[in-house]
Amino acid sequence: MKSSQTAANPSSKIQRVGVVGGGQLAWMMGAAARRLGIELVVQTPHATDPATVVAADPVLAAIDDVNATAELATRCDVITFENEFVDLDGLQTLEAKGVLFQPSLSSLAPLLDKYIQRCYLRDLGLPTPRFWEWDCSQDLHLDFPFVVKVRRHGYDGQGTFIVKDSACFESICVKLKGLALLVEE
Q1: Low-confidence stretches of the chain (pLDDT beneath 50)
Q2: Mind giving me the DSSP string for 133-177?
Q3: pTM here?
Q4: Which of 6, 40, 54, 121 gives 126 a disulfide partner, CB atoms 3.0 to 4.6 angstroms apart?
């Protein structure tokens, strides 16, 4: 895999950066990379995703497709992430084979699940809102408003709900039943 060459010699010049994800953030990375003389390669599900217009040689596949990420590794010097919707266990098999990920998978691990992320940040002494692990089968007694978030795969308002009253709360419980959730004040 091409990215293993950089893993063996991290001081070598990076010329191609692989990005798992092809949305707006990867698109912005592409513009910045171009100014630095770095070529961007993305792994994204659709040829119409935003970053494909600034990326060379895209790998068209789901972002949690580890085989596609292995292919991405052959086309770049290092791999980074646009979001956290990845198969961390699968990626660890690639890392063991020498694929270079930045940030490292060990750095990414505590950030994938929002509850674990909040615990990690709190344990580092960083400010966090008050938060709880929760699912809709449990009673919850908080003053309105509060925030409910899905623990995985939520972003930019997707999977994030501001609960303003009991009717809103009941509606969210129906919608999110069975999912692991985070509640924040």
Answers
A1: 4-6, 11
A2: EE-TTS----PSPEEEEESSS-BTTBTEEEE-SHHHHHHHHHHHT
A3: 0.82
A4: 121
Say if residue 58 is in the same domain as residue 11: yes
Helix, strand, coil: what percent of the chain each, to 5?
35, 20, 45
**Structural domain total, the chain:** 2
CATH number at residue 133: 3.30.1490.20
Residue 8 belongs to what domain range?
2-111
Distance CA 78, CA 73 (A): 7
Beta bridge partners, 161, equal: 148
What pLDDT does 60 receive? 98
The contacts of residue 176 (CB under 8 Å, 6+ apart) are: 136, 148, 150, 161
Indicate the Cα dihedral angle 47, 24, 61, 176, nearest 10°.
Answer: -120
Q: Domain check: are 71 and 138 in the same one?
A: no
Tell whether 19 and 86 lie within a shared domain: yes
Q: Reply yes or no: is the peptide bond before residue 103 cis, omega within 30 of 0.
A: yes
Q: What is the pLDDT of residue 32?
A: 93
